[in-house]
Write a structure and sequence with these properties.
Helix content is about 35%, strand content about 15%. It is of the alpha/beta class. Helix 4 (about 110-120) links the parallel strand 6 (about 95-100) and strand 7 (about 125-130). The relative contact order is 0.14.
């Protein structure tokens, strides 16, 4: 996202992961003493340079319905009736759409996302992140995934992560 250098919309499957984007950004990139709110928004109606929302929020905004989300911090509700998502994203100058955990795109979220990206046009860079591409899906589902996310640019295999010392052990494997 930093290399592209344009405002970004980051989509995540859960509120917890959405919040982690802000935490990691603050830890790794935020200038000393700068308020996070100057750089990051979690509200589609008030986009920031980075706007981190859930796929559910995009779906609700795109279909102009009410969003009801539950999270560890608090439950959230937002009415997107009368809200024009495309206009808001264009006005914010969004040039990057980052799909976190892109393998979760197998339902209405993907259909709305496909239509949303198509309406944005060719000037938007799509970055799809996933630990597990949907290799086990049907040919049709795989083709839809690749048409949205593109071909896989790079795969990082477990031995590489072990050699680099960057493999993150999952909590369920720790005794």
């Amino acid at each position: 996202i930093r290399r592209v250098g344009k405002p970004a919309l980051i989509l995540s499957p859960t509120v917890t992961i959405r919040q982690q984007w802000g935490e990691r950004f603050a830890e790794s990139f935020l200038p000393e003493g700068a308020p996070l709110a100057d750089y990051l928004s979690t509200n589609l109606k008030e986009p920031g340079f980075l706007t981190s929302v859930t796929y559910q929020a995009l779906h609700a905004a795109y279909s102009r319905t009410v969003l009801e989300e539950e999270g560890e911090e608090a439950d959230e509700s937002e009415d997107f009736g009368g809200f024009d998502l495309i206009d808001a994203v264009r006005a914010a100058g969004v040039g990057v759409v980052c799909l976190d955990e892109a393998h979760h795109l197998r339902s209405q979220w993907q259909r709305d996302l496909e239509a949303f990206v198509e309406k944005l046009g060719d000037g938007v860079t799509i970055i799809a992140l996933t630990p597990t591409p949907p290799y086990d899906s049907t040919r049709e589902a795989w083709n839809r995934y690749v048409s949205l996310c593109g071909e896989i640019d790079e795969e990082i295999h477990v031995p590489q992560l072990v050699a680099e010392g960057t493999l993150c052990p999952h909590q369920d494997y720790i005794y």
